[in-house]
């Protein structure tokens, strides 16, 4: 009987020891599973403290305490090695497809589409005529010009070191500066030929002069010996190139000078529409600098965000979007633009609010603020589409 009781006591003690061991192991495992979720905001020292807090060594036997101490030490060392910010890890693990997508910058080509479409719609409002073949020739030529801008920008930023760590730089991806530069200027030549053909067909010399002025703005923006973007003048040049120059030029090209006595008049409606296009295009450029402030500053590129900082830059974005819609209602009230434009463009206000909110929330997060320019592209495309549709609708309704 006594021996049976002793055996039962031994079994009970063994079960207690097993329960204590499994409890401690479960707590450690749960803490371990939380590490991937906490990696982005916990340092190694905080994690070690968390693990030690979860595991109470007083509840275990001496042998288990020694083993658990070894687990904690090994785990804390691993945590220290993995304390690199998650955004840097994400940058290291970007797929080839993502890099190609970023290098191509397909959404940015909306800056070729919107000025052309708005200018064409303004011309249609005035004449009631639409030249489809000329439109698509201008679209293809404009896309070639934008490709030149993107490729040459990568080349010249590579030269200054601004794109040294930019994986999506075309020069870094293909490994040839000369090849990229030659391709860029071949595209520029083809684009200019297309624009010249369209201008000749329209019989309007003013339009090609305006387009050459727009291309000149792009050249002095980024190309040596000017590189005015390094002096914080990129945004004014962008506004002029895509706003008054390009939009007005497309307006003139889409109206045959032979069909309109003396040529198309340069109206306040065209000027107002070009201002809207210039503002939304410039907003894309401005927001593209948020995640590049440190790199730009290191190579002496004094973009507006380098000068004023990202916090004030987020306030500039807010003021710009508010000003965009304020001008919309002012121009609508003064009948500078048709009522249809005011109504349809006002429908894009939620997108404008999205841009402001996103930048205000993420201006200090380099991984997230990268997407700000794409939200601006969305605003640019939607506002431009609404503006163009409003101009066409005004012709249909009131003429």
TrEMBL record:
Compartmental location: Membrane
Coiled coil: none
GO cellular component entries: membrane
Keywords recorded for this protein, A-Z: Membrane, Transferase, Transmembrane, Transmembrane helix
Keyword Transferase appears in the UniProt entry: yes
MF terms in GO: prenyltransferase activity
One record GO biological process: phylloquinone biosynthetic process
Topological category with respect to the lipid bilayer: Multi-pass membrane protein
Sequence intervals crossing the membrane: 106-125, 131-149, 170-197, 203-221, 233-253, 265-287, 316-333, 339-359, 379-398
Pfam families assigned: UbiA
InterPro entries (UniProt xref): DHNA_phytyltransferase_MenA, UbiA_prenyltransferase, UBIAD1
Primary localization class, coarse: membrane
Name the UniProt record assigns to this protein: UbiA prenyltransferase family
Protein source organism: Dillenia turbinata
Classification of source organism: Eukaryota, Viridiplantae, Streptophyta, Embryophyta, Tracheophyta
């Amino acid at each position: 009987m006594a021996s049976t009781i002793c055996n039962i006591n031994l079994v009970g003690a063994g079960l207690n020891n097993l329960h204590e061991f499994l409890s401690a192991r479960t707590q450690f495992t749960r803490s371990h599973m939380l590490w991937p979720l906490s990696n982005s905001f916990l340092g190694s020292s905080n994690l070690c403290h968390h693990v030690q807090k979860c595991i109470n060594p007083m509840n275990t036997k001496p042998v288990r305490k020694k083993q658990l101490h070894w687990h904690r030490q090994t785990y804390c060392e691993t945590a220290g090695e993995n304390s690199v910010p998650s955004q840097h890890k994400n940058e290291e693990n970007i797929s080839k497809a993502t890099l190609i997508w970023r290098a191509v910058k397909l959404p940015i080509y909306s800056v070729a589409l919107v000025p052309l479409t708005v200018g064409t719609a303004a011309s249609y409002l005035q004449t009631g005529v639409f030249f489809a073949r000329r439109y698509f020739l201008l679209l293809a030529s404009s896309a070639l010009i934008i490709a030149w801008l993107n490729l040459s920008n990568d080349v010249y930023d590579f030269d200054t070191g601004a794109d040294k760590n930019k994986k999506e730089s075309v020069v870094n991806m293909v490994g040839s500066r000369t090849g990229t530069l030659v391709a860029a200027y071949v595209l520029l030549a083809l684009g200019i030929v297309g624009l010249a053909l369209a201008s000749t067909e329209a019989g309007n010399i003013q339009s090609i002069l305006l387009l050459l002025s727009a291309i000149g703005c792009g050249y002095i923006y980024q190309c040596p010996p000017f590189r005015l973007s390094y002096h914080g003048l990129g945004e004014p040049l962008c506004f002029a190139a895509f706003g008054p120059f390009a939009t007005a030029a497309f307006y003139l090209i889409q109206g045959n000078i032979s069909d309109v006595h003396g040529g198309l008049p340069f109206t306040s409606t065209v000027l107002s529409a070009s201002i809207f296009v210039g503002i939304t295009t410039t907003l894309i450029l401005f927001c593209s600098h948020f995640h590049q402030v440190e790199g730009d500053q290191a190579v002496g590129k004094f973009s507006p965000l380098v000068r004023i900082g990202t916090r004030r830059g987020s306030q500039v974005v807010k003021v710009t979007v508010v000003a965009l819609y304020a001008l919309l209602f002012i121009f609508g009230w003064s009948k500078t633009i048709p009522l249809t434009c005011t109504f349809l463009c006002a429908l894009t206000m939620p997108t404008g609010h999205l841009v402001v909110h996103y930048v205000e929330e993420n201006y200090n997060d380099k991984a997230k603020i990268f997407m700000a320019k794409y939200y601006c592209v969305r605003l640019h495309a939607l506002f431009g589409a609404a503006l163009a549709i409003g101009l066409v609708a005004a012709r249909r309704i009131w003429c």
